[in-house]
Amino acid sequence: MKNCKVTQNEHLFGFLFVLPAVIGIFVFIIIPIIGSFYLSFNEWNLLDKITFVGLKNYKAVLTEKYFVQIFINTVVYALSTTFFAVVIPLLIADILNKKIKFAEFFKTIFFIPFITPVVVIAIVWSQIFDPASGFINQVFHTHSTWLFDKNLAMPLLIFISVWRLLGYNIILFLTGYVSINPNLYEAAKIDGANNFQIFRKITLPLLKPTIYFVTLVTAISSFQVFDLVYIMTEGGPENSTNIIVYSIYKYAFEYFDIGKSCAMAYLLFIAILILAIIQRKLQKENSIE
C-alpha cells in the first residue's frame, strides 16, 4: 500500500509539472486551430458580427486573380530552397566528416546565419542588394535593381534562404554520419572504391532516414516562409515573390478579411499535408527496395 501511495504521488507530481505545458498547447495551439477552422467558413472583419458563409471563402480564394501565381511562387520557392538546402549541406557535411583541418571552425561559420534573427538577415541583405548604395553594385560597378527586378527577386530570396539553412542542415547530416560504422569506409577503401563510389554506395543508403527528415523539415519551413518576404520585397515586384503565408497576413491585417485568411491557411495546410504523405510514401518504397 505504501509503494502504491508513492506511485500515486509521483503520478500527481508528474501531472502537475506537465500541466503548464498542456495548458499552453491547448490555449495557444488547439483553440486557435479550431477557431481558425471555424472562421474559414465565416465572414468577419474583426469588428462586425461573424456571419456564416459556408464554402464561399474557399471559392473566393481559389478564384482569386493572383492565386495561381501566388501558389506557383510558393511551390517554386519551397522546392528550390528544399533542393539546394539539402544537396549542398549534404556535400559539405561529407567533406567535414573526413576530419579536414579547421572543421570545427567551418561548422561554426556555417551555423552562425541560422542562429541570427531573420529580421537582421533580411535587413543586411536588403542593404547589400540596395540598387543605389548596395555593396554588390558598388564593388562590381553594376546597376542592377536586384530585389526590385521581378526576374531576380525570387532567386535572391531562395539564395538567402539556402545560405541561412546551410549550417543547421549540415549539423543534422553530421549527426547522421555518427550512426555509420567507420569500418564500412575502411573496407570500401581496401576494396579499391573511390570517394564517389563510397558516397553513392555507402553514405547515401545509410543516410536515407536523415535525408528524409531534413528534406521534410526544410520543405515545411519553406512553405511557411514569411519574414524574408515581408521585410525584403513585400511580395513584389509585380507579385513575383508573393507567397501564401504573406497573402494570409495581407488578408487578415491589411484587408481585414479573416475568413479568407483562415481559408487560405487551411489550403496551405492541405498542401503541406499532401507533401508529407508523398514523402512518407516514397520513403517507405525506398526502404522496401
Keywords:
13 helices; MetI-like fold; two-stranded antiparallel sheet; 2 strands; 2 domains; single chain; mainly alpha; 289 residues
Structure in words:
With 289 residues, the protein is mainly alpha-helical. It has helices at 2-39, 56-62, 67-96, 103-115, 118-128, 135-140, 153-178, 182-190, 195-206, 208-223, 227-233, 244-253, 258-288, and strands spanning 42-43, 51-52. It has a two-stranded antiparallel sheet.
Give the helix proportion (percent range). Answer: over 70%
CATH topology of the largest domain: MetI-like fold
Which runs of at least 5 residues are low in confidence (pLDDT < 50)? none
Care to count the β-strands?
2
Please report the number of helical segments.
13
Order of strands across the main sheet? 1-2
- First-to-last CA distance: 54 Å
* Helix and strand run: HEEHHHHHHHHHHHH
Radius of gyration using CA atoms only: 24 Å
Summarize this entry quickly.
With 289 residues, the protein is mainly alpha-helical. The chain has helices spanning 2-39, 56-62, 67-96, 103-115, 118-128, 135-140, 153-178, 182-190, 195-206, 208-223, 227-233, 244-253, 258-288; strands at residues 42-43, 51-52. 75% of the residues lie in helices and 1% in strands.
